[in-house]
Amino acid sequence: MPHSPPLKPRAQSTRKNYHHGHLREALIEAAVQLIEEQGVDKLSVREAAKRAGVSPGAPFRHFATRTALLTAVAEQAAEHLRTQVQGALRTVEKQPPLVRLAAIGHAYLGWASAHPTHFRVVSERPLIDYESSETLTRSNAAIREVMEQLLAEAFKDHMDLRSQGLAKIAARALVYGLARMSVDGHFPEWGEPQRATEQTMTDTLDFFIALLAIPTTR
């Protein structure tokens, strides 16, 4: 049986795709590749430059520190997530508020499953300069505001503001926790095969939304 030709290392793809004037994007791509291969602890600006095929000093015009580079990766993650959430909401814009709330959660889970490296970086606040990033703070605030609006619309007649706030935190914690369990491969420990992870996350979120929909008595 003839042997297949050896695969080229991923480093080649970054160098091949690098064009003058797009160094910032090439460095972010290189950083993501390096994190996937070696872990975030091994990432450096110089290693990203090497992977992108540029001189060691070239990246520092864009990223003076490793934290700055990781923050840019997190900003890319936030933009991708925002786009995915907006698209999901458009498909259910005429649906009841809890259906739209669920759509946000499902979009988040789908994004985290498709982009585990981005999820890890954006969710590890000590690695990034979150407070100084307008992109990150704006994207998170926008999602929180939509969740608040949907909960107010769904429960304004029978849930006070404090309870709505707790429901918002519970929804966020559930979705984040499911994404973290998926990325870290925890589901088999809880009796759910890894191959069934996406369905398990979907079913768990839908279970939570169904509980929210049950009328409460005060």
What does this structure look like?
The chain is mainly α. The chain has two domains: 8-64, Arc Repressor Mutant, subunit A (Orthogonal Bundle), CATH 1.10.10; 65-213, Tetracycline Repressor, domain 2 (Orthogonal Bundle), CATH 1.10.357. It is built from nine helices and no strands. It has helices spanning 10-17, 23-38, 45-52, 66-91, 97-114, 116-123, 134-155, 161-184, 197-213. The longest helix is centred in the middle third of the chain and has 26 residues, at 66-91. The chain is elongated and about 60 Å long.
Rg to the nearest angstrom?
20 Å
What is the CATH architecture assignment of the largest domain? Orthogonal Bundle
The CATH topology label of the largest domain is Tetracycline Repressor, domain 2
Give unreliable regions as ranges.
1-20
Order of helices and strands: HHHHHHHHH
Can you tag this structure with a few keywords?
0% strand, Arc Repressor Mutant, subunit A, 218 residues, disordered N terminus, transcription cis-regulatory region binding, single chain, 2 domains, mainly alpha, Tetracycline Repressor, domain 2
What's the SSE blueprint?
Elements: H1 10-17, H2 23-38, H3 45-52, H4 66-91, H5 97-114, H6 116-123, H7 134-155, H8 161-184, H9 197-213
Helix pairs in contact: 1-2, 2-3, 2-4, 4-5, 4-6, 4-7, 5-6, 5-7, 5-8, 5-9, 7-8, 8-9
In short, what is this structure?
Residues 21-81 form the HTH tetR-type domain. Residues 44-63 bind DNA. The chain has 218 residues and is an all-alpha fold.
